[in-house]
Write a structure and sequence with these properties.
16 helices; 4-stranded parallel sheet; binds 1,3-dihydroxyacetonephosphate; 392 residues; binds iron/sulfur cluster; globular
């Protein structure tokens, strides 16, 4: 994330009680009716979800952002890369606001544009006879999305990664690609989502290499790079890294009827041991569709798991591990920050606006639009499947 700074909140906002903040937020929303949409990612705390006009995973929210017409402001309950994507996808006149500028994503910060340019130059030199298609997970900066757009690739999310990879393996939108030429995917920045999805599509692990941006050739031999189908950036989510295979083993021992449902940002061994893997929207759908008495151990951020637990008392729902699997940056968006940005909007002051510069916006739009045009979103990544199989 570019260097951003969150100014200290005026004292009043930190001194108000929650009921007072709620009342003032409600008042500000009424004053802004018709001009404002509040989006809330599934990992947001309940206090924020209560005020969200739309909730969803990062894919659904990007679609919602793109649909907003005739309003003036989108307030994003989420993290910086999501607000950047919303700015890119909304009409020019819509101003996107992130209530706390400190709400970043450590995974997105693991791939910088300079490192990407260096990796690209080295890969092109090592594999001159291949088509390299860059794909970036939504959890990346707008600069990386723009790089990908400019080089014939697309964005993906955890709901549509498989579909986007299938598209990429046909050459994506790389100029000059000819059928029959070997295609290699360079996948940013979450090695786990890339590996889990490629494996589910039928690619063996020895066809994947990890690119460590701190090392020459990403720490690989030229031969390994040439042979690989997937070059996975060495990035990860520090929240999902907390789930370990032993946690699944423990659930199997202690709760034989419990299904293990995890997010594909979890490590490979965890996903392999789990029963199902999919985006936050997929996780929500599984629980909603399950009969009373169902038992789930869920491997994702704790706010979503606790909300599902509250909404479905007829089911038994636990977090896959007892670690504090909390996304601390998502958690920065709270009632005081929401109240502060909304009351400023009522006064005509736009604080914490997220603006993507025009060059970056142009190419990142291309990468995001390519994603939105690929059919078959909302699919789980599945387990190992023959190449080309789509899991419904
Ligand atoms: P999804 O919203 O795609 O499920 O991703 C979860 C996440 O980590 C967002 O940062
Ligand atoms: Fe980033 Fe992980 Fe938090 Fe998602 S859960 S915003 S990937 S740190």
């Amino acid at each position: 994330m570019a260097l951003v700074w969150q100014q200290p909140l005026p004292r009043i906002y930190t001194e108000l009680s929650d009921p007072e903040l709620r009342l003032r937020i409600e008042g500000a929303r009424e004053a802004l009716a018709g001009k404002l949409a509040i989006l809330g990612h599934h990992y947001q705390q309940d206090d924020i979800i209560d005020f969200a006009d739309f909730t969803g995973d990062s894919f659904e929210l990007s679609r919602k952002a793109a649909e907003q017409k005739g309003i003036e402001y989108v307030v994003f309950g989420g993290v910086h890369f999501m607000a950047e994507s919303a700015d890119i996808l909304t009409d020019e006149g819509v101003r996107v606001i992130l209530p706390d500028m400190g709400a970043g994503c450590s995974m997105a910060d693991m791939a910088s544009l300079d490192q990407t340019l260096e990796a690209w130059a080295q890969l092109e030199e090592a594999c001159p006879d291949q088509t390299i298609v860059p794909i970036t997970y939504m959890n990346s900066s707008a600069a990386i999305k723009a790089f990908v757009g400019e080089h014939g690739g697309a964005v993906c999310t955890s709901s549509n990664c498989r579909n986007v990879l299938e598209w990429a393996l046909k050459g994506g939108a790389v100029e000059g690609h000819t059928p029959g030429r070997k295609v290699k995917v360079l996948f940013f920045p979450d090695q786990h989502l890339g590996r889990n999805t490629a494996f589910a599509m039928g690619y063996p692990l020895d066809k994947m290499v990890v690119w460590d941006p701190t090392q020459d050739l990403g720490g690989n031999s030229e031969r390994n790079l040439i042979d690989a189908d997937f070059v996975l950036w060495k990035g990860h989510c520090s929240v999902h890294a907390l789930f370990r295979p032993e946690h699944v083993d423990q659930v199997r021992r202690d709760h034989p009827n419990m299904k293990v449902l995890v997010h594909p940002e979890c490590k490979f061994d965890v996903v392999q041991k789990a029963d199902m893997a999919g985006s936050t929207a997929y996780i929500v759908k599984q629980v909603e569709a399950a009969p009373p008495g169902s038992e789930w151990a869920i491997g994702t951020e704790v706010h979503l798991v606790n909300r599902l637990k509250q909404q479905h008392p007829e089911q038994k729902i636990v977090v896959l591990s007892d670690c504090q699997c909390l996304c601390t940056t998502m958690f920065r968006i709270d009632l005081p920050h929401l109240c502060w940005v909304l009351e400023n909007l009522v006064e005509g002051n736009v604080v914490n606006e997220i603006r993507v510069d025009s060059h970056t916006r142009r190419w990142a739009t291309v990468a995001l639009d390519r994603m939105l045009a690929i059919p078959g979103t909302g699919n789980p990544i599945g387990k190992k499947q023959p190449v080309g199989t789509t899991v419904d």
